[in-house]
Design goal:
Elements: E1 4-9, E2 16-22, E3 29-34, H1 44-54, E4 58-63, H2 66-69, H3 78-95, E5 101-106, H4 108-119, E6 125-131, E7 156-161, H5 169-179, E8 183-188, H6 205-223
Parallel strand pairs: 3-4, 3-5, 5-6, 6-7, 7-8
Antiparallel strand pairs: 1-2, 2-4
Helix pairs in contact: 1-6, 3-4
């Protein structure tokens, strides 16, 4: 399935950023997907996620943050990223007004989406999806980056690998517990921050991507 290219203005002071809409005929919802700090919407993981989700009836809108669109070295300041998330929500609503909307993303993209939702509701968004929530820096366990999640009011789905060095499960599990019934934690056995698994696990990457897509599709269907 060929994605449809789109563009939208990220912020009041920046130029347009690129987006890709992948919509299967049987879509039951649309998931807004932001990329991580190190790779844009065209990264193989993002492409595979969009394709696998489409086969489960989940449409997706991937988009770039301004720093990735412009080829700059590091992420924009948080306010720029948050404003881009809000602009992406508007773009997603315009692209598929008939589909229930969910939002989230990979690592930084997911965290900036929840940061935006904690500050002010995201219009029309029914829940947030985190593909590897970056709870802390590698080797520096802390819950600080997750404090804002208490300010969100939406259902939350965390997909997290057991080898993720940016999210100690000993910290993430209690955090999800404190968030109550609206937080769902799906653990991907053997996955690292990018959900890569060791060869000795015997699992093919396609199996891992299928597991992730199945979890997202089931969660969104239950909420729709």
């Amino acid at each position: 399935m060929e994605p449809r290219p789109l563009h939208f203005a990220a912020t009041e002071h920046s130029g347009p950023v690129s987006a890709l809409l992948t919509r299967p005929a049987d879509a039951h919802c649309l998931l807004l997907l932001a990329h991580g700090a190190g790779a844009g919407m065209d990264h193989p993981f993002m492409e595979s996620t969009a394709s696998t989700l489409a086969s489960r009836g989940v449409a997706s809108l991937r988009y770039n943050f301004p720093f990735m669109e412009g080829g700059r070295g590091g992420p924009n300041p948080a306010p720029v990223l948050v404003e881009t998330v809000r602009s992406a929500v508007v773009a997603a609503t315009e692209a598929a007004p008939d589909l229930p909307l969910f939002a989230g993303g990979k690592s930084l993209g997911g965290r900036m989406t929840s940061t935006a939702a904690a500050a002010e509701p995201l219009p029309g968004v029914r829940g947030l999806v985190f593909l590897g929530f970056p709870l802390h820096a590698p080797g520096k366990p802390s819950r600080g980056r997750g404090d804002h999640l208490e300010e969100t009011v939406l259902p939350l789905l965390f997909l997290q690998g057991t080898r993720d060095r940016l999210a100690d499960l000993g910290l993430l599990e209690p955090l999800c517990g404190a968030l109550g019934a609206r937080a769902t934690l799906h653990i991907v056995e053997g996955g690292d921050h990018s959900f890569a698994v060791l060869k000795r696990s015997g699992r093919h990457p396609d199996e891992v991507h299928a597991e992730i897509a199945d979890a997202i599709a089931a969660w969104t269907r239950a909420l729709v």
